[in-house]
Specification:
Pfam families: DsrE. This protein is of the alpha/beta class. It contains four helices and five strands.
Amino acid sequence: MSNVTDRLVVVMTKGIDSELSSVAFTIANGAITSGLTVFVFLTSAAIDLVRLKGQEMTHVPPLDPLAQLIADFQARGGTLWACPPCVKSRGYAQEDLLPGVVITGASAMHDEIKKGAATLSF
């Protein structure tokens, strides 16, 4: 049985105040470049990364601005999932988030892991 996978789930808890958010999206974009199907599950403070205008608050040179990293991720087919209780606890609704963000529970992430997806956490 092969341990090779073509799927990656990135779990993010760091928000707009952390350089790790830019690092995570840089790695996620690199994974797409290498041929992986990539899913990002946002929880805790990472929800603010997909709040309208939230991602515009972070730029960690020499990396691309976070807004550009996220736009590239989505344009290249990456999937963004947002934790429902984390969205709700911040008073956000679907219309407060970037287009294309899917508010869904951890079961979506677990389904990909059960299919063999590799995982990274930030």
